[in-house]
Amino acid sequence: MNSVTVVDHPLVQDRLAQMRREETSTAVFRRLMGEIGGLIAYEATRDLPLDHVRIRTPVSEAEARIVTEDALVFAPVLRAGLGLLEGMLTLAPNARVAHLGFYRDPATLACVEYYFKAPPNLDRALTLVVDPMLATGGTAVAAVDHLKAAGAKSLRLACLVAAPEGLANFHGRHPEVPVWTAAIDERLNDHGYIVPGLGDAGDRLYGTR
User: Fold this and answer.
1) N or C: which end of the chain has fewer CB within 10 A?
2) Residues whose CB is less than 8 angstroms from the CB of residue 56 and which lie 6 or more positions away in sequence, other chains included
3) The whole model's pTM is what?
């Protein structure tokens, strides 16, 4: 899996372990998701383009580097992706945001679209798709399909936990799109949930189950 980076930083793994615990409250789960989102985004954006500028410090003028304008777009998959987005925007508050609404049909596990809105000029940006659970991979595939159709050229995927089946499906359709994840788990169960996983990220994030 040359296109997959497991973010094994101790701070990421510590937060993931806390999120996996069944007894972790909604409030703590939400806070941890925001924190881990920023940490994963930090790793996935190491090569963002920079502009050279002249600034003045309290002592003198200096050469400095700043992130190129419009260089970064976060594209969270609704609704669970919003939990990671908060921490990512804390790290990169000037990033633009696309919103991708998909849900997985509980009977067929097929991905169903209900909303899509992206900023212009995606071809000039690094677009980071944000989807906490890469289970079957269907949602991530659909998200990248839509973003490519909207003009995105440079795409990456950030998730919390990935299943081997989801990675195989995703890279079968989009082999050039690299993935950053905090863990690759064992497998999917008969209901399409990642094992051991952490349950339904959206429900745990918003206390809906």
Assistant:
1) C
2) 62
3) 0.92
